Amino acid sequence: MSNDVLILGGGVGGTIVANLVAKEVGDRARVTLVDATGTHVYQPGFLYVAVGQQHASAIQRAESALLRDGVKLIIDTATFVDTKARKVVLKSGHTLRYDELLFATGSRTVMGEVPGGLAAHDFYTLEGAERLWRTLKDFTGGTIVIGVAGIPYKCPPAPVEFAFLLDDYLRARGIRDKSEIKLLSPLNRAFTIEATSKLVQPILAERGIELTGFFNVESVDPSAKTVTSLEGETFEYDLLVLVPPHRGQKVIERSGLGDERGWVPVDKNTLQHLNFPDVWAIGDTTNIPISKSGSVAHYEATVAAAEILAAVKGEAPPAHVYDGKVMCFLETGKGHATTIRFDYDHPPVSPTPSRLWHWAKVLFNKTYWHTVPQGRLP
Amino acid sequence: MSTLQIDKSIDARGMACPGPLMNLIGAIRQGQVGQVFEVLSSDEGSKTDIPAWVTKAKHELLEVREDAGYAHFIVRKAR
Q1: Which residues of chain B neighbour A192 with C-beta distances below 8 Å?
Q2: Rounded Cα gap, residues B79 and B74, in angstroms
Q3: A360 vs B16 pLDDT, higher one
Q4: Cα dihedral sign for A87, A89, A94, A96?
């Protein structure tokens, strides 16, 4: 056994690739996964934690419980990748060699890049979602402003979903009439996807959620409680919820393997690094102009696993490539949801929101732990 | 050919909406007042989105020029 497959990141993408490769590879390679915490977090759950519908403990499990026996888990952080020597240096000082390397390191949020931004709430980390819920519980009325401080960010419809779930929550508390919800979008529509924006905009209006377009958050003044855009507009708030700016992980920037924001440049079909044929990247980590979401990482993972397996076996790359497939749910409140499906060649489509799609999302969230990380869903 | 002095050119051809606009916004965010930015976009949506954003953000759209399968948008950061 001379071959080493090294996977950085134990989120949805990295876990699927590790399991799929380990299942097929036999004794041809060792499969190692490095994860910073050893805890697998189901990030779509942050939205529900932020509005008190879910407990933090319900959306995390030990990564070791999700990996096949054939995968070695190392809890550590990669700090430098030497592509010439095919070595990865870890924070602990240990070094790992690789023949095939996968970056599935996701993105990190950097609210500190926004002047005054650290005064804002967010639901893009578990800690942020829990803190937001603690504040929301004690909220007695006022203006809640939801804004976006940088694109790309994870899960493009999330701010819209948060606005709908917040509306539900304030109604249930009986304080909706004492509150205003203002959704500030960086584009001249609810969010990136035009077709779905057209579908949800009338529902936002119906719920009294005020949408303002072309508001790219530039700064926050915590003492005046105002948020100002790059376009020169200012809004007052009582509670501010921002989508933080995102970047790739520091190891990518430090190793010179990404662009100026730390996103790894890969072929949009094969997910192979444009300069290093033995390096792949999936999920938020790539520079592909497609949604940063668990759904993308999931679909890309099956492709990356097949590519890595072919490389281990010395076979030609598989014919099946990533076609840009995305499928995600969008909660529209009042127990309804819709879906968004598209790929590189087919524009997004969304059905009329219904209870069916809401229950499909609930079911997916519950069954996730037993299906997705193991690679049981194609 | 344009005779304008371009400080930064962004090739967003092949990118779907809103990629070209977001790249322009990102470049203007980092840039200096007075600098001229060019975006190349093959996305039809850019023809409405980019001029609309430039107007709202009070910058100057200096030129929109059609080429083979894409358009050039030239914008000066005005403030």
Answers
A1: 18
A2: 16
A3: A360
A4: negative
Q: Note whether residue B1 is domain-resident.
A: no
Choose among A192, A194, A232: nearest Cβ to B57: A232
Inside any domain, residue B16? yes
Confidence at B16, pLDDT banded by 50, 70, 90? confident
| Residue B27 belongs to domain with CATH number | 3.30.110.40
The C-alpha atoms of residue A144 and residue A172 are separated, in whole angstroms, by 16
Interface touch B19/A289, C-beta < 8 Å: yes
Instruction: Judge whether B37 is closer than 8 Å to chain A, CB to CB.
Output: no
Helix, strand, coil abundance in chain A, percent, nearest 5 = 35, 30, 40
Domain count, chain B: 1
* Catalytic residue list of B: 17
Domain limits for position B41: 8-76
Q: Which residues contact A206 (CB under 8 A, 6 or more apart)?
A: none
Query: What are the chain B neighbours of A151 within 8 Å (beta carbons)?
Result: 18, 22, 25-26
> Which residues in B lie closer than 8 A to residue A259 (C-beta atoms)?
none
Cβ contacts of B75 within 8 Å, gap of 6 or more: B24, B28, B36, B37, B38, B39, B50, B54, B59, B60, B61, B62
Could you give the 3-state DSSP secondary structure of residue A300?
helix
Measured in degrees and rounded to the nearest 5, phi and psi for residue B12 equal: -110, 20
In a domain, B2, yes or no: no
* Structure token pair of residue A174: 């009986």
Are the beta carbons of A187 and B21 separated by less than 8 Å? yes
The residue of chain B with its CA nearest to that of A186 is: B22
- Domain range A3-107+248-323, CATH class: alpha beta
Confidence of residue A147 (pLDDT cuts 50, 70, 90): very high
Interface predicted TM-score (ipTM) of this complex, two decimals? 0.89
The answer to whether B51 contacts chain A (CB < 8 Å) is no
Segments of chain A assigned to CATH 3.50.50.60: 3-107+248-323, 110-245
Determine, for residues A216 and B18 on separate chains, whether the beta-carbon distance falls below 8 Å.
Answer: no
Is B15's CB within 8 Å of A214's CB?
Answer: no
CATH homologous superfamily for the domain A110-245? FAD/NAD(P)-binding domain (3.50.50.60)
pLDDT in tens, A166-222: 999 999 999 999 999 999 999 999 998 888 999 999 999 999 999 999 999 999 999
Give the closest-approach CA distance of B51 to chain A in angstroms. Answer: 11
